[in-house]
Amino acid sequence: MSKVQRVSVFRNAIEKIEEAKEKNIILEIPIKDIDNPSFHDRTTVSEADIWHLANNIKLIGLINPVIVRRKNARYERISGFRRIEAIKKLGLDKVNCLVVDADEKMSLLIMLSENIQREDLNPYDEVVSLLQLISVNLELSEDEVKSLLYRIKNYISGNVKELSEDEKDTRELVNGILAKTGKYNFQGFINRMRVLNLNPIIIEAMRTKKLQYSHAVELNKIKDDEILNKLLDEVINNNISKDELINKIKSIRGTTVKANPFNEVTRKLRYFHNLPKEKQSLIETKIKEIYELLEI
Question: Is 0.70 topped by the overall pTM?
Fold first, then answer.
């Protein structure tokens, strides 16, 4: 697929929505006739959020219709899970839907483009959604995308001497996709990708309790899960500022025994298989070098 074709894939997803709006293809559809999508919408929604949305709909109505496509004489939801659940809370059995003409890939792109624009999207799901959006546009697996992005990052920092023409094109394509979403530039997104390697306890808190990205990065400095859980509860329940959290972490780390660096490396290697393939390859090379140095 050419560079121009790849860029147009994302643009076409946005145009599909606008086209349906212009044609005013909005129908009131029974909820029982709407199936969940075959692709997986990975965002997390709390019961409180659903009730809050339901109350808003009750007061001012449904501003944005659910987006669906026709499939096998029924309808498949593309986006609008929260809206449908909120409508159910109000005891209603029908919902206004924007009907678009889209295949599987286009449906996924529409879902991602809608999802990424959500103001309440937590930092972890935002990065995952952007990564998936880039993956679909480039027609690469998410692991392949991560490897490419880390390689380009290493090139920028001087750890990789040169990029192929395809890799240079990929950098431009990713910049274009990110610019279209209005979220990050290339370097900003690469930096945000660190959320993918945070402690699972922190990731879960980000997804369900709206933990801020800056707090999450600081909390990840705590390696003892028991201490981490206690501090996490304190951050969430007492609304601790970043500066207060930094001071608390300094105090905790100052009163505990400094971690053995070998133990720390062993701990981090537990997440080895979650890393992109390029990082895995670099780590394997370094381990071989260390092994050779240790040979007597």
Answer: no
